[in-house]
Amino acid sequence: MNLTTVQEALEIILNSSENFGTEEVDFINSVGRVLKEDIVADLDFPPFNRVSMDGIAIAAEAFNKGIREFKIEDIQAAGSPQLTLQNTNNCIEAMTGAMLPKNANVVIQYELLDIQDGVARVNLETVRDFQNIHLKGLDRIKGDILIEKNKMISSAEIGVFATIGKSKIKVAKQPKVMIVSTGNELVKVTETPAEHQIRRSNVYTLVSLLERLHVKAKTAHILDDKEVLKSKIEGFLNEYDVLIFSGAVSKGKFDFIPEVLDELGVEKLFHKVKQRPGKPFWFGKKANKTVFAFPGNPVSTFVSCLKYFYPWYSKTMSTSEELNQAILSEDFFFKPDLTYFLQVKLTQKEGKIYATPIAGKGSGDLANLVDSDAFLELPDDRSNFTKGEVFPLITFR
Ligand SMILES: Nc1nc2c(c(=O)[nH]1)N[C@H]1C(S)=C(S)[C@@H](COP(=O)(O)OP(=O)(O)OC[C@H]3O[C@@H](n4cnc5c(N)ncnc54)[C@H](O)[C@@H]3O)O[C@H]1N2
Ligand code: MOO
Ligand SMILES: [Mg+2]
What we know:
This protein has about 400 residues and is of the alpha/beta class. It has four domains: about 5-20 and about 175-315, 3-Layer(aba) Sandwich (Molybdenum Cofactor Biosythetic Enzyme, Chain A), CATH 3.40.980.10; about 20-45 and about 140-170, Molybdopterin biosynthesis moea protein, domain 2; about 50-135, Beta Complex (Molybdopterin biosynthesis moeA protein, domain 3); about 325-395, Beta-clip (Beta Barrel), CATH 2.40.340. The protein contains eight helices and 28 strands. The protein has helices spanning about 5-15, 60-65, 155-165, 200-210, 225-240, 255-265, 300-315, 370, and strands at about 20-25, 40, 50, 55-60, 70-75, 90-95, 105-110, 115, 120, 135, 145, 170, 175-180, 185, 200, 215-220, 240-245, 265-270, 275, 280-285, 290-295, 325-330, 330-335, 340-350, 350-355, 375-380, 385, 390-395. It has a six-stranded mixed sheet with strand order 7-4-6-5-9-8. Strands 16-13-17-21-20-18 form a six-stranded mixed sheet, sandwiched between helices. A hairpin with a 2-residue loop joins strand 8 (about 115) and strand 9 (about 120). Helix 5 (about 225-240) crosses helix 6 (about 255-265). It is elongated, with a radius of gyration of 31 Å. Ligand LQZAQKY5 binds near residues 185 and 300. Magnesium ion binds next to loops.
């Protein structure tokens, strides 16, 4: 049985990305969203010659002709309209954030002054033009593109939105996601499982993995009843853009998901990938609906979401995906000819990232994820991996 390789699976998934259009959100709620408009400076940055140290404002020419004592005419406060230095042999006290008074072009900070009876004595040999002044338009000019569209919005961009008065931001619309777990053995987190049951965990890890993308997902749990599965999933297919399943995609008698999806007209694009964990991964489309059916083992669900949903989402938002790498810190052996997502602990040394294997007891061992920082992607074409080699890294912390 020729399995779909990881690369082929990823290519199929990236070719199945969608575009959900754009919407406007309040700028303060836009962190994590993908910007869909160029952000342009409405004014110069800074908008005026900004005093950048508390002190006195003088004219360089007065200093250069030997004046060292300056009579204080007034105080230029931040937030007050611009004052004018009446006599260029005098000075005006000027505060950080204030407009530079007219006829002045140097600011000398209080630490270099002695002020007595309204006269400031300057203890300096030389001054240079525009000393301690953040010049108008030095950083950006009105009309400049400050932020290009398709950027993932972080706190830094929030400050720029506020500065230019951009209170509504055009962003990419996010897909509506429903995460579905299946299995009679699964009970609610708040319940005490009988000896044949376990508490359901995968939907919550998936919700939190999507939260890292600032995507809010709904969840549902369906028992291993084919008819119930079919009617509920039919409803979800109408209502949601993306369905993410966890479980019931392998060879079990109650693994109904593939046949139910098939009966509901979801076209299977592949089932079973040449990887571990996550081999029974099923992926399909129905028109612009996208279905990720991850294997039920918790680590399989976890790494498959990172490896496949994350890039799909980035492509759909047409923003860039961060690609990381790390150095294997010791030899590692993995026999099967599958791509192996090895759980690793990360350490930094001299600016390099080292990955130490924390293999765990298999893809059911979700507790092992607590001791891991990431997955190192070991290729499917060999079994020996040597210390010092560099491999792609999938982080989740
Ligand atoms: N004969 C074969 N058996 C299995 C194969 C195979 O190739 N041949 N594949 C194995 C692999 S690999 C995996 S992975 C699992 C995947 O099975 P399913 O996708 O059908 O998942 P389930 O059978 O529903 O559950 C597997 C396992 O995970 C637990 N589980 C499921 N959902 C949750 C949840 N929401 N929270 C916590 N734990 C969950 C479930 O109790 C099972 O223990 O199949 C192997 N079998
Ligand atoms: O392929 Mo499974 O997801 O390793 O257990
Ligand atoms: Mg199964």
